[in-house]
Write a structure and sequence with these properties.
Elements: E1 10-16, E2 19-26, E3 36-41, H1 51-59, E4 65-71, H2 73-76, H3 85-97, E5 108-113, H4 115-127, E6 131-135, H5 150-158, E7 163-168, H6 176-182, E8 191-196, H7 213-233
Parallel strand pairs: 3-4, 3-5, 5-6, 6-7, 7-8
Antiparallel strand pairs: 1-2, 2-4
Helix pairs in contact: 1-7, 3-4, 4-5
């Protein structure tokens, strides 16, 4: 297993109609020029400490990208089952509205993993996001490719919001090759897909995989940083 040294964050509570949400804020350190703010939502099966989201919070601020991890009200309340998708969108909108002044004045990028990725894609255009960073976008429920969620991401792309998707090669909720096939038309010009070899929906890899968990985290961070600077800032 990998260990991450995530710097102590500032935690801000944000009221929502569904209870308090929390913003876990890892700002750009003093002496580093801020280039973007990245707001990330967690998935339905974990919180803001999942290894990929935690890696971004630990390593991007030193590169000028402040990271704010949104902890949804259902998670703050200690419930084990995620609330309905529209409630996640409400909390994301309120979280962006509540960002401290220090996180403003630079391009806003929204994203997250799984359910948080879906919410970011749905809300990106109305939030004025310069881009979306999506980890393990759940293209469909496990084993049910006919129930596609393609339109959620397609809507952001159609609105002119570019997207980075980091997808596991063996993701049961949409393998990387399924995602590539779903966006093979004109939308592909606005979507960058990074494939994690051997990874599942949690971006975890088996022992026989060519990458270790440390390698996966480095790939997530490096891909996100390069893409944010190129697409959202540049």
């Amino acid at each position: 297993m990998s260990t991450l040294d995530v710097p102590a964050e500032e935690v801000v509570e944000v009221p929502t109609p569904y209870g308090a949400a929390r913003l876990h804020r890892n700002p750009v350190p003093a002496g580093v020029a801020p280039v973007a703010s990245l707001v990330l939502g967690h998935g339905a099966g974990g919180g803001v400490d999942t290894h990929d989201i935690a890696a971004l919070a630990a390593r991007l601020p030193a590169q000028g990208v402040g990271v704010v991890r949104l902890e949804q009200p259902w998670r703050v309340a200690g419930r084990k089952v995620a609330s309905a998708p529209p409630t996640l969108d409400v909390a994301l909108r309120l979280a962006v509205a509540a960002l401290p002044e220090a996180d403003r004045g630079v391009p806003l990028v929204v994203g997250g993993r799984s359910a948080g990725a879906r919410s970011a894609a749905r809300c990106a255009a109305e939030l004025g996001a310069a881009g979306v960073v999506l980890l393990a976008f759940p293209l469909h429920p496990p084993g049910k490719p006919e129930r596609s969620r393609r339109e959620e991401l397609a809507g952001a792309l159609a609105a002119g919001v570019p997207a980075l998707v980091v997808q596991g090669e063996n993701d049961a909720m949409g393998r990387a090759d399924e995602l590539a096939a779903a966006f093979a038309g004109e939308e592909a010009d606005r979507l960058d897909l990074v494939v994690v070899p051997g990874a599942d929906h949690g971006l975890k890899v088996p022992k026989r995989a060519p990458l270790t968990l440390d390698d996966v985290q480095a790939l997530v961070v490096e891909s996100a940083l390069e893409w944010i600077v190129r697409e959202a800032v540049g």
